Amino acid sequence: DWSLKDFDIGRPLGKGHFGKVYLARVRKPGAESFVLVLKCLAKDEVASKGVQTQVRREIEVMQQLRHPNIIRLYGWFHDSQRIYLMLEYAAGQGELFKHLRKAGRFSESRSARYISQVSDGLAYLHTKNIIHRDIKPENLLLGMQGEVKVGDFGWSVYAPSEDSQRTIAGTLSYVAPEMILGQAYGRAVDIWALGVLTYELVCGAEPFGADNPRTRICRCELSFPDFVSINARSFMHKLLCLTPNERLPLDRIRDEEWIVESVR
Ligand code: AMP
Q: 71: Cβ below 6 Å to ligand 1?
């Protein structure tokens, strides 16, 4: 039972695919006053782009999640023109992508801290049988303490049985080889994407190139710039394995030397 009149709308934070994102404050009588984000989706654009399922999925999935490394969805409402998502405010100045482009690349310790946090969020999602399917710097936001928060669930899927998915989803340079090869796949695609993310944070470039990465992904053709440490290379090799069940399980990531060294 929320509506637009329950909020003071503040500054715009950005523009998404289907509408604007605003900082806002709740001012509903009886409700605690707090700052949040209103993501406004124009219904006609959602319909004309045929992404109703994606939006519904984002809402259904996010509403059941409570984790420090995942943007919380407090609720949602709609009027004749728009759908409004009430989201936790990530106060760390926008997407990790933006910070990465500005910096070129991150130090290995900074990258390892982010990777450890994303892996915690993903491990939590997997316990709920949700595969994210679109982990990349554009979908990660920074919180007040500089912690990473996974913030976009448009490609996520509820998959209670392992290796049950077949739809190609996500962003090409981050998709796992089994997806490209049209095989049934499962949550290990998120571990692959975490490997690609590690490479992008550490090296400032995509591991399999941006132009036609399909062949290189399916051969797992990795080459590292000279500055990448042995521990970082070894860590990435453990995530970027062609065989899904050989990828390092998320609950072992925190024990990896590369992570332990940086997070302590
Ligand atoms: P999106 O439609 O999710 O791509 O959002 C567009 C922009 O709004 C992003 O690039 C962020 O800078 C900002 N934004 C979205 N969600 C949040 C949030 N929960 N907290 C802070 N900024 C956000």
A: yes
